[in-house]
Design goal:
The protein is of the alpha/beta class and about 250 residues long. The protein has a single domain, classed as Spore Coat Polysaccharide Biosynthesis Protein SpsA, Chain A (Alpha-Beta Complex), CATH 3.90.550.10. Helix content is about 40%, strand content about 15%. The protein has 8 helices and 9 strands. The protein has a 7-stranded mixed sheet with strand order 3-2-1-4-7-5-8, sandwiched between helices. The C terminus is likely disordered.
Length: about 250
């Protein structure tokens, strides 16, 4: 479990994992800062992007006191990047930790609603598959894979969350402290499923807030067959694991 910080820091930390997001990063950071004007820190976690994303991140950190950068030497996937960012946020005193994509598929305009919902919940999930939520700019195949993946995970794990593969989340500090981050090894969709499932099994309250997910307009998708396959084979094993069941 991360040590408690010696001094209080910003209450809300927004963790932005990046890999080749040079076309999006500056606009995204600006939008996040506009939506959350008070007591927040934006943490960019860059996996040594060859397109110069890391240099842009460093410049933004120099220009804004509330922006910081965590450089990682290898591209290990979304899950490990988030874990590194979560640990940094906990060490920095965060009370609420936001995870979101860095390509504008997660609209920063949804941030106030998600954070507002966190006053009565332990995990808030920006959901595409509850009333009021949706997806834009996707073809039929990708819609099928996403919705089918969430349904598969929901059925296999026996939970009621509609958008288990969703990655736009707000965690209360105590959730990340109790779900054993060090034992999570998933990288893609499975990482999103596993963090939410662990929170549920520990007895934390998870609520879904509708969001509209939009496909990226800059750069290329990180979706791959390997990411989908990982979720398929990892999800059944999650239910068999011990150690994160509610006590």
């Amino acid at each position: 479990m991360p040590e408690s910080p010696s001094e209080p820091g910003p209450r809300v930390w927004v963790v932005l994992p990046t890999y080749n997001e040079a076309g999006n990063l500056e606009r995204l950071v600006t939008a996040v800062r506009e939506q959350l004007p008070d007591s927040r820190r934006v943490l960019i976690v860059d996996d040594d992007s060859p397109d110069g994303t890391g240099r842009i991140a460093d410049r933004l950190a120099e220009e804004h006191e509330d922006v910081s950068v965590l450089h990682r030497e290898l591209k290990e996937g979304l899950g490990p990047a988030y874990l590194a960012g979560f640990r940094e946020a906990l060490a920095g005193g965060a009370e609420l930790i936001v995870g979101m994509d860095s390509d504008f598929s997660h609209d920063p305009a949804h941030l106030p609603a998600l954070l507002s919902a966190s006053t009565g919940a332990d995990v808030v999930l920006g959901s595409r598959y509850v009333e009021g939520g949706g997806v834009e700019d996707w073809g039929g195949l990708r819609r099928f894979i996403s919705r089918g993946g969430s349904a598969y995970a929901r059925i296999m794990l026996g939970v009621g969350v509609r958008d288990l593969t969703g990655g736009f989340k707000v965690f209360r500090r105590r959730v990340l402290e109790e779900i054993d981050l060090d034992s999570i090894t998933a990288r893609g969709y499975a990482f999103q499923v596993e963090t939410t499932y662990r929170a549920l099994k520990r007895g934390f309250e998870v609520v879904e807030v509708p969001i509209v997910f939009r496909d990226r307009t800059e750069g290329s998708s990180k979706m791959s067959r390997g990411i989908v396959a990982e979720a398929v084979w990892r999800v059944p094993g999650m239910r068999l694991r011990r150690g994160w069941r509610s006590s």
